[in-house]
Write a structure and sequence with these properties.
It is found in: Cell membrane. It is a multi-pass membrane protein. This is Aerobic C4-dicarboxylate transport protein. GO terms for molecular function: fumarate transmembrane transporter activity; malate:proton symporter activity; succinate transmembrane transporter activity. The protein has 452 residues and is mainly α. The protein has one domain: Sodium:dicarboxylate symporter (Proton glutamate symport protein). It has 22 helices and no strands. It is globular.
Length: 452
């Protein structure tokens, strides 16, 4: 393996591209321009929403087939059901441990900072709050645990792809990959080579679409600020500062996890995925960078199988930023109506959020639904469920915090699980994170030659 990673010192260094061609610079300019337009011309900013929506739709149209191809190729090269099972179990254990910590951490911060103190809202004035929340969520509801698990099984092979249900696509891909591995025991099947070619074509398409990311980030940010933005900062300043401060502290926790359990620097990882992070921040969506993040993690030395299993699953089970936000908001709402929750009531909230946070992905207004279910479960008569409507003015501002922590949390999870499974090429990872050149991966899976 070391031979494939050696760099030839004789090769001349590549010419540096002009600074303005950097995607990071373009995204930075686009985000600043979007904030400026949204703040100075709110109506114009709100009208630019289709730019962000169009970019997100372009990405989403290829997410399902990319996840399918990546997972199938990875599992087919492992060819071992036990190995796939171990990856899945370790990933779920990691997800549960970290998201539970995020919930506890959020409750601790909420108790210390008390972001809702001083609002002094009379619950009787919230009579129309339930209607506002229902309009925001489309009268939807979060699936129950059994329903959520059953929904992982698609009604048909086609429906999973047509409806962009990532967990369903992942379920199909795992079965298909294992079947291909069994079928190919006497030689690699032609269909595996076909899937590899399709995967490469899809990533070329993604490369073209990503050139439009500054335009998408500009439109999305202009819309967020124009529709919800700076005018909401005054009344919600303490809550916003509390959430973003808690997120910054939580990133330090992720940094420790990355160093201890993956043996790499979190800050180098942050620098490595900065382009994708800015796209997610600008569009307020982590889905738009899912294909690029998977590609970067694989290129950095994580196995294709681990990346393909952990990243899409983490989009439903490892929402660190969302769980942190929900825990703080439960206390914010209680404090805003003048109620101090007891330790027992906070433990009840914690247990409910451990369940409701797992079914949030892809559900419109999911944070409001999770909070409504939690307040109902607490059963405190002085906190009406309609109090959730208080957050309507600030929820959109929190998206940048949620998506950044969610994205970074899933990248860390992938490296940690890959390292636990011995499917992390530490030598290649160190070179990539140091910004050094490495040869392109000839094999579909960078760890294929290391497995027994």
């Amino acid at each position: 393996m070391s031979a494939t990673l050696e760099r030839t010192d004789e090769s001349a260094p590549a010419a540096r591209s002009p600074w303005y061609s950097s995607l990071f610079v373009q995204l930075l300019v686009a985000v600043v321009a979007g904030i400026t337009v949204g703040a100075l011309w709110p109506d114009l900013g709100a009208d630019l929403k289709p730019l962000g929506d169009g970019f997100i739709k372009l990405i989403k149209m290829v997410i399902a087939p990319i996840v399918f191809c990546t997972v199938v190729l990875g599992i087919a090269h492992i060819g071992n059901l036990k190995s796939v099972g171990r990856i899945g179990i370790k990933a779920l254990i990691y997800f549960e441990a970290v998201t539970t910590f995020a919930l506890i951490f959020g409750l601790v911060v909420g108790n210390l900072v008390r972001p809702g103190a001083g609002f002094s809202i009379d619950p009787e004035t919230l009579a129309t709050g339930a209607e506002a929340v229902a309009q925001k969520t489309g009268d939807g509801e979060l699936p129950h645990t059994v329903e959520f698990l059953l929904n992982i099984i698609p009604a048909s092979l086609v429906s999973a792809f047509a409806e962009n249900q990532l967990l369903q696509v992942l379920f199909i891909a795992v079965l298909f990959g294992l079947a291909l591995a069994k079928f190919g025991e006497n030689g690699p099947p032609v269909v595996l080579e076909l899937i590899d070619h399709v995967s490469r074509i899809l990533f070329i398409v993604i490369g073209w679409i990503m050139r439009l990311s500054p335009l998408g980030a500009f439109g999305a940010m202009a819309y967020i600020i124009g529709q919800y933005g700076l005018r909401s900062l005054g009344s919600y300043a303490k809550l916003i500062a509390c959430c973003y401060g808690a997120a910054a502290l939580f990133l330090l926790v992720l940094a420790v996890i990355t160093r201890v359990f993956a043996g790499v620097s979190f800050w180098k990882l942050l620098r490595y995925i900065k382009d994708e992070l800015f796209v997610a921040l600008g569009t307020a969506s982590t889905e738009v960078v899912l294909p690029r993040i998977m590609t970067k993690l694989i290129d950095a030395g994580a196995s294709r199988a681990t990346t393909g299993l952990v990243v899409p699953t983490g989009y439903s089970f490892n929402l660190d930023g969302a769980t942190l936000y929900l825990a703080i908001c439960v206390l914010f709402l209680s404090q805003a109506v003048g109620v101090d929750l007891t330790l027992g009531e906070q433990i009840t909230a914690l247990l409910v959020l451990m369940l409701t946070s797992k079914g949030m992905a892809g559900v419109p207004g999911s944070s409001f639904l999770a909070l409504s279910a939690t307040i109902s479960a607490i059963g405190h008569g002085s906190i009406p469920v309609a109090a959730v409507a208080i957050l309507l003015g600030a929820d959109r501002i929190m998206d940048s915090m949620r998506v950044s922590v969610n994205l970074l949390g899933n990248c860390v999870a992938t490296l940690v699980v890959a390292n636990w499974e011995g499917q992390l090429d530490r030598e290649r990872l160190a070179l990539v994170l140091d910004g050094k050149e490495v040869p392109p991966l000839d094999e579909p899976d960078p760890m294929a030659s290391r497995r027994d």
